[in-house]
Structures are given as structure tokens and as C-alpha cells.
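Review form for a predicted model. The reviewer records the input and the model, then writes brief findings.
Reviewer: anonymous (R2)
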Amino acid sequence: MTSMRKRFASLLSTLALCWCQLAQGGEGVAVVVAPVQERAIQRTLALTGTVTAARAARLSTAVGGLVADIDVDAGSVVEKGEVLLQLDPELAELQARSAGAQVEQARTALADARRRLEEARSLAPQRSIAESVVRDLAAEVAIDEAALHQAMADAAYREVVLARHWLRAPFNGVVSTKLTEQGEWVNPGQAVLELVGIDELRLDFPVAEDYLADIRPDAVVNFRLSAYPGHTYQGRVDTVVPVTDPGVRTFLLRVLPQQSDQRLVPGMSVSAWLKLDTGRRGLVVPRDAILRYPDGRVVVWTIENRPEGPVVRENPVSTGVTFDALVEIRDGLAAGTRVVIAGNEALLDGQQVIIDAPHAGGAGDV
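Model under review:
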């Protein structure tokens, strides 16, 4: 068995040597290169959150009654002022009509008292009527005026109670939950519908407290919706609530979307990426220049100019953070060095290559 392993290893070495000789003796392998650049180092914070509404309410009726009609269901989109539910108004209508009749009665009584007072005052100069009678009639007019005001207030109250038998949408939104049905009796304050606003939506993310000091207001956030994974949208940081959840050590990051076509719906799952400035500069290469091997080595192929033409050299590197399809190089490369970003999958150290132009908008753009 040991002999077979030795023969197999020898065969692999021979094949590798032949390949290297063929590669160096030919015209070379075509590769795409890009320069090592120095720039501000950023780190990308990946976030997962939820689309929420600025307004959400559990709607209830202001009066008790029997549900006569309910015009919406869960998922219904409604506009502000639209009737959502109606209570049986029969008793309230009768009470309102009775209060209106009392107003008319009080108004008639007041008119009669005023007429009699005017007649008494016209007779007073001829002493055809006692002064006490005139005073009694004036007092009766005052009492009737107060009675009319009371009747009018009661009638207005009855009209308001009647109007509140119709539950209207307080804002534009979508009905998220239906909590009652036609024929049920509801009491004041009992939730009958849940309404979620659709005009003012935002994105809420839990963020580890370690990042609190690095997040700036109005910072750009790119996000994707789980329902539409092929589209990327842009938002800006609106609020950072520096109150952590003691259980998980996170705080709330609220982002406002900047585009009008992102088709947001409250409750949607959303993934986002926020760039954080590290406050330092360093060397970076395109992500395609990095090769990682199972044994833990991280390698970048660089270009070395020779009289017979450019050749490649294998360079072990130490990497840092990744952002914008770039990788930070902490050790192993110098600024301005050209690195291979395409065609680097099967190179050999010292192999001659042909430098090809990068495709427009390809990985060579740094």
C-alpha cells in the first residue's frame, strides 16, 4: 500500500511539472487584472427586520348596540371616512326624534311667554296690570329660554349618539383583523376591527448595541423585501432608539423608504445592508481576486513583469472586512500592485499570462 501511494504521488508531481512547462512555453493564459487601491474602509452591517405602519388602531364603537351591518373583512383596503360597521340605529333614531320634538315644544312655550310679557308691558303704563304680574312673566320667559337651551343640548347629544352608530375609518389603511360579525352585541370600547395605516410605512430593525455609536442619522440603507427578492430599494436612517432590550441587548433602528414603488405592506419581512465607516483607510482588492483553500490559506495572484512577458505570482494575504464587493488586505500586498480577478482558478506560480481587458461593469471595477 505504501508503495502504491509513493507511485501515485510521483505521478502527480510529474503531471504538475509537465503542465507548468507547457504553460510557460505557450502563449500564456488570458487573465483580467485590477490594481490594489487605498480607500476608506467600511464594514457592512446585515439587518433583518419588519415593515411596520406609523399608525395602527384597534377600532371600537363609542356606543353599545347590535351590529346591523359590517362592510369590510380582513384585507379590505379602506379610505379615511369610509363606513366600516353600522349598529342598529332604530332606538337612537327614536330618541333623536323625541329630543327634536322637545326642542319644538320648548321653542313654542318660549314664544308664547315672550308674547304675554310684551302684552303685559304695554299695559303697565296705564296701570291696567300689576307690576308683580309683569315680573312673573319675565321670570317665566327666562325659565323657558333655559328650557329651550337644555332641550337643544339634549337634541344635539342624541344626534351625536345616533351618528356614532356608524363606525368610520379614522385614516387610510387595511383591515388586518375582523373581531365581530353581524348580529353580535358590542359594548363601548370593545375592539371590533384592527386597522393598519398604509400611507406612512417604515422599516424596523433590531440592532446589537455594539453598533449604536457607529450609526448616523440619514445614513443610506439598501434593502430587499422577501416578497420581491429581485429588487433592491434605498432608505435612510430616521430614528435610532438608544433603549436596549435587556434580554437580547438590542436597540431599535427605524428606516424610512425613499422610493414610491417598493410595494410595501405592513408585516413584510425585509433584509437590509447598512455601511458603517470604520474611521480608517487601507488597501482593498476586488472580491474575485481572493482565493480561499480548504487548508485555510488565503491567496491573491499578482502580476510580475518579465522580459518575456507578464507572469503570475502566488501571494498569501491576510484579509479584513468585506464591503461593496471589495476585500480589505491587511498584509501581503502593496498599493498599485496588479492582482488577477478573472482566470485565476488554475494558475501556477511563474506561469506566463496574457492580460485581457475587463468587461464593462465587470468585477474589475473598483
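Findings: The CA atoms of residues 293 and 299 lie 8 Å apart.
Further findings: The longest strand covers residues 228-245.
Recommendation: see findings above.
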